[in-house]
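User: Could you walk me through two proteins back to back? I'd like the raw sequence and the structure tokens for each, with a short line separating them so I can tell where one ends and the next begins.

Assistant: Of course. Protein one, sequence then structure:
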Amino acid sequence: LVNAPALPPSPVSWITGDLHLENFGSYRGNNQLVYFDVNDFDESLSAPILWDVVRMTTSILIAFDMMKIRSRKAEIALKKYLSAFVEVLSQGKAIYLEPETASGLMKQFLVTAASKRNKASIAAHTRTEKGKIKLNVNQKELKLKSSLKKELMGHFSLWLQENTELKNRYKVVDAGFRVAGTGSIGLDRYLFLCQKINDRSKNLLIEMKEAGASCLLPFQSLPQVGWNTEAQRIITIQKMMQNVSPALLSEHQYEGRAYVVQEMQPVKDRINFQLIEDDFKSVLSILADMAMVSASSYLESSGRYGSATADALMAFARTPGWQESIFTFSLMLAKKTQDDFEAFKGDYRSGNIH
């Protein structure tokens, strides 16, 4: 992207750095309402806005190819995303999706998400052993060594006492190591089971994930904010770009490393395009909704810490020509990504990758 001659110049904004189809989803905000929004900010930083856009449009083409959807339909979908993105950005007003404001399949998705209860999520991740609730142990939730578990539980108890919402109301009763997301490989990610002190039937699942540097940083020459920690970067940008933040989103330090803490969502679902691939009208509607919330995230964070103003974003959206360039570049980048993946599979099968 840095050296791409086909990529037009664009305003410098806060971007997620990893915008693709699976990084949108529903979640319960700190106001207990359910929203649909961009939900992954691990790679976020200040960069040209089109870095995010072309990442997203390329993911659309790759996903449609994997689902065996005809290339003509994929091109229509890509143009739909871009036109919806431009429409919202050019108006300069952020729009947000919740059950009351959504329509069609998105409304059904959010109404279903809102109906889910915390108890069901707790039950899916826990078991009862000798009358006590404990975390499950499986391929995604691993058991900790007893010494590390004791240390983590004691340390996280201090975080609970620092949190005004939970202080003197909840206690830590179990901890485990959580495996989730390929981008988190190599980073520590812990899960804590917390129980209400005066009501053992009420519990919380809280994640503590180590924060790493954005993978885009080595390729970005623009000056960045001097964040104290990577967790501060992720949380600050997330709060700027999202309409409402997830419950308990905060930073915590453990053994000199910064972690992002948030409630493990009883509601955090993604749109499964494979279930609706035969309903092309619904696919286009969902893509338009994704374009709407992504454009809104740039408007929401506009003018913050030196990012482009809303006026600059609006002027860019109305500039002719760049959409066609994005379309052409996305086709090229999708093919390159697929070719690289085939080469990777070949090397793996031949034993060249260990």
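----
Protein two, same layout:
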Amino acid sequence: GPASVASVFTGVRRPGLRTETPARCAGAVPADRASPWSRPGGTTVNAMSNSPSARPGGLAALFSVAGRPTEIKVSFWIWFAGGILGAMGGLLGMLASLVLFAAAPAAAAAVVTLMLLASAVGVAQMVFAVKMKAGRTWARVALTALAAVTLGLAVMNMLTGMGQGGNWAAFLVSLAATVLMWLPNSQAWFAAGPSRNTSAE
């Protein structure tokens, strides 16, 4: 009757009169159950949208020096480039010494062994350089030991009269790279440990 129509429009609920709740739209989520990551209009915010960009992988990560002190960057490139030159020099020397096998097999075998050792040291130096760049303290110690070995070889070659100017040049380059690893700025970066900032890689 008229009373029922009036109660519908006025929103007054009278005894004995049951009003129907409007049907909820399909797919609608109650306000009290809405996700904290959802925006008005149904747009959902990805929880990872504010996370740091993904770090590069593969060769990009191998050669990335972002977020490191300048001393660490320069030291890394010196050690890595020196390792490449050492490995290549050892391999070339080994190939060149193969022609000695016909005349002096024993001497040729010794030279080949030394050249293989030089190549192995070059490869190890590259690995240590990458680990040092990643903040591994043991790699910094290993590179320092390699610099000491370079000095020992230079002195030995000089005393035996078989030395070359390249031996001392290699030692001076290794010494520069070693000093850079132990400067105060580098020391603070290594001491920071896992809390160091490398997110910009």
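Residues 3-9, 21-25, 34-54 have pLDDT under 50 and may be disordered.

Let me know if you want the two compared in more detail.
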